[in-house]
Amino acid sequence: MTISAPRIDESPYARAQRRTLTVLVTAQALSGAGLAAGVTVGALLAQDMLGSTSLAGLPSALGTAGSALAAVAVGRISQAHGRRPGLVTGYLIGALGSAGVIAAAVAGNPTLLFLAIFVYGAGTSTNLQARYAGADLADPAHRARAVSTVLVATTLGGVIGPNLTAPTSDLAHALGIPHLAGPFLLAGTAYALAALVLALWLRPDPLLLARTIATEPNAPTYGANESGAAPSSADEFSAVGFSTAPSSTTESGVVSLSAAATSATPSGAKESSAAASGAAPSHATESSTEPSDTGSSTALLSATTSAATVSERHRDMGHPRHRTVEKPSAGVLVGALIMVVTQLVMVAIMTMTPVQMHDHGHSAAAAGMVIAIHIGAMYLPAPVTGWLVDRYGRYPIAAASGLTLLAAGIVAARAPGDSVALLTVALTLLGIGWNFGLVTGTAIITDAAPLATRAKTQGLVDVSIAVAGAAGGTLSGLVVAAAGYPLLALGGGIVALAVVPAVIVGARRSAG
Fold it and tell me: CA-CA distance, 222 to 245, in Å (whole number)?
């Protein structure tokens, strides 16, 4: 009887990655609704309370500043304890901030509003940090697609949320809450539900499992991190088919066969030995074996899993024979710059667009529709973007990001104040350009950051992104008050071109 070799994507690691993406997609769909509340009515709420347009961008600035602080916290918690505790903590803080905004609106207290918006920013940061969890267990050749899968899930909540502005405003009014605070009722609920989903089902923890795959298996327990601390529960690993018993190692220290595999027939052992020594296994459809008992199949599965471990470990730990990405420091800097510039430009133009529409007589529902389409453009193209990045490379798509943002700025600047259609086109382009920048930047940084410090590095990068967003939100109101919305939009598009020289430098370093 002849059987085909199990495919690598049938390994326990691949099953864990599929489970991780499923849980993250569910949580992101929920949290997307919370993300949209501050974008849609935050500036309008501040304008209503303060009676001034010049400070209408302050809530966005404070929200992104809070996002920066939360990025550090979520990154450090993830580094020490895994992705699940970090993400759950971030979403719960975001829910608390939403409740604070409602309390501030009821009390008519601008100071409390600004403080609550600052806390609410943790939800935004956590929503973005989740994309890294999707890449932890992904094959390097498919990392951009894994990131995109997590990002696109935000579209559901992100598109539905702004369109619930009117219903939630009506609900708030019925409850005796100022109508502009209504969307924050939805935000608090959405963030709390996202935290619950992650707390219950993000098991095994993807970052801890990635460390298990990449680290020498000398410790007696699978899943120990590089400081020697074990995951919160060994059941996380056994639940999806991972053994918690010690594994043997080859001379190079790479994971060899499990106990079940070592009891296999000689033919299975020969297959596993080749894989453990670093030889790449042939594809499932191209190889077969004649097992004398069921142990051979187990051995072959362990062998292919071991080979996959060799490849991932060499890439992430910087093995000189398999290094295919640029130097970590260069990659992190270039990836960070791409995301910082795109965030700055996107936040500045997006924040003041509802104010521009409001000043020209458009309703909150119309502004909510434009923002909903914008958020859809930020996330919905992600699967296509991920495929483009994996297919054609990080840097060409990053350059396209800068050019797309320039086009968005030009369209927004030339759009008449009463033209909802042209503003919708402008914000659609703005969302697509941001998507290009985020996916490419995330892939570059994940490629470049060593696994041992990946979560901490990613958290610090997201701090810089949040600071850029805060700067964009702060400056946007001042620029519009002083020179008008068209100058803000056109200036933002020009600033976006800074991505292009960064791409050129990064591409040259990568080629060198």
Answer: 7
Residue 277 and residue 269 in contact, taking contact as beta carbons nearer than 8 Å: no
Contacts of 254 (CB under 8 A, 6+ apart): 276, 278, 306, 309, 310, 313
Residues 103, 285: Cα–Cα separation, whole Å:
61
The answer to whether the beta carbons of residues 460 and 72 sit under 8 Å apart is: yes
pLDDT in tens, the chain (512 residues): 444 444 444 577 788 889 999 999 999 988 988 776 666 677 778 778 777 666 666 787 788 788 888 989 999 999 999 999 999 999 999 999 999 999 998 998 888 988 999 999 899 889 989 989 999 988 888 889 999 899 888 777 777 777 777 788 888 888 999 888 888 998 999 999 999 999 999 999 999 998 888 774 543 333 333 333 333 434 444 444 444 444 433 333 333 333 333 333 334 434 333 333 333 344 344 333 333 444 444 443 443 344 344 334 434 433 333 334 444 467 889 999 999 999 999 999 998 998 888 888 888 788 888 988 898 898 889 999 999 998 999 899 999 999 999 999 999 999 987 889 999 999 999 999 999 999 999 999 988 888 878 888 998 998 898 888 878 888 898 999 889 999 999 999 999 999 998 888 888 877 76
> Whole-model pTM?
0.67
Distance CA 446, CA 336 (A): 11
Give the burial class of 178: count Cβ atoms within 10 A of its Cβ; 0-12 exposed, 13-18 middle, 19 or more buried: middle
The C-alpha atoms of residue 88 and residue 268 are separated, in whole angstroms, by 43
Beta bridge pairs of residue 4: 288
3-state secondary structure 349-405: HHHHHHHHHHHCCCCHHHHHHHHHHHHHHHHCCHHHHHHHHHHHCHHHHHHHHHHHH
The identity of residue 494, as a single letter, is I
